[in-house]
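Backbone-to-sequence.
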């Protein structure tokens, strides 16, 4: 089983959300559903980046690292450049 760290973007409100999960598809559906709590007001959410890890603890470390960044937009641009 793998764990995903993901970045969502609300294009309508220009907001980003960073999280981690073991079921990425289900989590995105939850963020875009009426059952969502914090993310409901910024729907719809679009997946802009994800990374997979072997353990939840490593995924949680990466999630914390991404959340600590001052400018997630700049980091996403760097990732695009590195990945081609």
């Amino acid at each position: 089983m793998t764990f995903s760290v993901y970045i969502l973007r609300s294009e309508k409100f220009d907001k980003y959300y960073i999280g981690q999960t073991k079921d990425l598809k289900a989590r995105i559906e939850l963020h875009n559903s009426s059952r969502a709590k914090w993310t409901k007001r910024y729907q719809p959410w679009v997946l802009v980046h994800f990374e997979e890890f072997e353990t939840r603890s490593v995924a949680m470390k990466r999630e914390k690292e991404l959340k600590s960044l001052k400018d997630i937009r700049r980091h996403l641009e760097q990732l695009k450049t590195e990945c081609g």
